[in-house]
Model the fold of this input.
Amino acid sequence: MTKLSAKTALVTGASRGMGRASALALARMGAHVLIHYGSGANEAEAVVAEIRNAGGRADAVGADLSAPDGAHKLAKHVRAVIGDRLDILVANAGTSKSATIEETKVEDFDRLFAVNVRAPFFLVQQLLPIMGKDCSIVLISSLAAHAAVGTLSAYAATKGAIDTLVKHFAAALGERGIRVNAVAPGVVETDMSSFTKTDAGRDFTLGIQALKRLAQPDDVGGVIAFLASDDARWISGETSESTAAPSSDAPGRYGAESTVSIGIRHRPMPYDPWKNSTSQVLKVQVRSDADAKRLAFPGATVAACRGKRPGLNSS
Ligand SMILES: NC(=O)c1ccc[n+]([C@@H]2O[C@H](COP(=O)([O-])OP(=O)(O)OC[C@H]3O[C@@H](n4cnc5c(N)ncnc54)[C@H](OP(=O)(O)O)[C@@H]3O)[C@@H](O)[C@H]2O)c1
Done:
């Protein structure tokens, strides 16, 4: 498949995990891919070699995206390699930290927001001069932004920020012909989700999925490449969940004792962003996951749960 021949792409955090898988998928579709890395120069060179050996085009570019000027340096580097046209930006590099609210340190919080939010924001800003009509940006959100899983509140907040940026970037850049979307994976077996190596983590992950296997980086890499390609030319401003449909029969997540809080936001109709919306919280007793799932109708957020619910350590 060579749908992207003559196109250039930058994938951040492509030295391993989902970034690597996305870069390989884009290269298979014919794009010239820049493989960005932070500390994994050797891993990035291995990805470049794999693409070149298969007849594709790739180069490695390094930059520490936790530094305030990391995105600016990376953009300069990118322009030096590919010149004045970048067709696809996949801002995938990310870091996670599992900690309770009490355990979360200011420096961890700042680092999460630096790598996961500040870097994609300024990378988009710095690369805009070489992006235009028919270009596409894909950011990476997470299931953690949409459901309270694990002790991940600070990490999840960075992904909530990504969902917000997608809407604003898509609205601001649409008239230039640039599409902006995000992919929000569930748990994917990478270095980041090391808890899947334990029996409890693996069982929990399988329990919340309809497809009963652990997601691999390739499973999501193809979704990212699709959104970046012209086949998705009428999709912009969307966060696409790539979670293999959370299962309605997840064992033990919501049992007979569970109480679920549902937040419902009432928006003024017709919708006017300058008018305040009102919200309401309902406490509802549920007996099973199927009950809880039925409550997650559009406009409602299932915000909290008391009762039987195993925790996660990281994602
Ligand atoms: N795994 C999951 O279950 C999951 C679920 C939902 C969303 N996500 C999101 O998906 C994206 C990819 O995650 P993954 O699981 O593939 O992660 P991963 O295997 O841990 O890889 C992370 C990548 O980000 C790069 N990176 C991290 N910190 C960096 C920094 N300071 N400067 C430059 N590069 C940096 C790493 O580069 P080096 O190794 O070269 O430093 C690496 O290539 C992230 O945004 C993550 O939040 C993951």
Summary: The chain has two domains: 8-242, 259-306.
